[in-house]
């Protein structure tokens, strides 16, 4: 498994890729639904992964009906989630080693996420990563959310690199669609969602974890020496 060309920059998704937060969102949301008297299974929750709130709200109302207290669910889930992130370490395995390799290779990097800037800064600071990314592209920095290409195109613009020369790392289907439509070499690192055949076709590779991404980048760098 090799990348089609040597990347000159890397764009990371955040939730489920750098941080094990998608599983925490899942736990927080299922608990919130139960507290409000609704049964929410994991399969339904996972249809929302990688979407922003207006889309998720629509999915909830379609699934449960127009009377469903979507905003109340969101508020309770946020409270539950905050309790979880305050009590656990949630950095994904392989993040530090991968960032060290990018430092060694002098490869610039950005985050492209649907999360808000304060959330990104919180997660980075908790794990002492605040200075390790050159740019942060978050909600409010682009016109359309994933699966539109806007977040990744904005990241490439800020990095000053052509999208085709960027490696994009994503865990969600919508994220893969976004990065691929931006023209980036896209590697999926599955978290809660496994790749479908259609998603796999959009990817340069599917990596089991960030350690495998490290090996891909190491091989790509060695080819250029």
Question: Could you explain how this protein is built, in words?
Answer:
Helices cover 49% and strands 10% of the residues. It has 225 residues and is an alpha/beta fold. β2 (109-112), α6 (117-126) and β3 form a beta-alpha-beta unit. The chain is globular. The protein has helices spanning 21-35, 42-46, 53-64, 70-87, 95-105, 117-126, 150-159, 173-181, 197-202, 210-223, and strands at residues 9-12, 109-112, 135-137, 166-170, 185-188, 205-206. The protein has 10 helices and 6 strands. The chain has 2 domains: 9-20 and 90-223, HAD superfamily/HAD-like (Rossmann fold), CATH 3.40.50.1000; 22-87. It has a 6-stranded parallel beta sheet, with helices on one face. The model has no long low-confidence stretch (mean pLDDT 96).
């Amino acid at each position: 498994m090799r990348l089609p060309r040597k990347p000159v920059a890397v764009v990371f998704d955040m939730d489920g890729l750098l941080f094990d937060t998608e599983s925490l969102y899942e736990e927080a949301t299922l608990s919130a639904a139960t507290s409000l008297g609704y049964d929410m299974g994991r399969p339904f929750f996972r249809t929302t992964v990688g979407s922003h709130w207006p889309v998720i709200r629509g999915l909830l109302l379609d699934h449960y009906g127009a009377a469903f207290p979507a905003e109340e669910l969101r508020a309770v889930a946020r409270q539950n989630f905050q309790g979880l992130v305050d009590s656990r370490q949630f950095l994904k395995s392989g993040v530090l080693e991968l960032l060290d390799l990018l430092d060694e290779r002098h490869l610039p990097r950005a985050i492209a996420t649907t999360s808000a800037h304060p959330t990104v800064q919180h997660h980075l600071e908790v794990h002492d990563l605040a200075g390790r990314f050159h740019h942060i592209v978050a909600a409010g920095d682009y016109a359309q959310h994933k699966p539109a290409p806007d977040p990744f195109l904005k990241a490439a613009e800020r990095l000053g690199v052509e999208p085709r020369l960027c490696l994009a790392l994503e865990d969600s289907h919508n994220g893969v669609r976004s990065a691929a439509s931006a023209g980036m070499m896209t590697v999926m690192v599955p978290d809660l969602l496994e790749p479908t055949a259609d998603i796999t076709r959009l990817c340069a590779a599917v990596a089991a974890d960030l350690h495998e991404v490290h090996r891909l980048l190491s091989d790509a760098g060695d080819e250029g020496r």
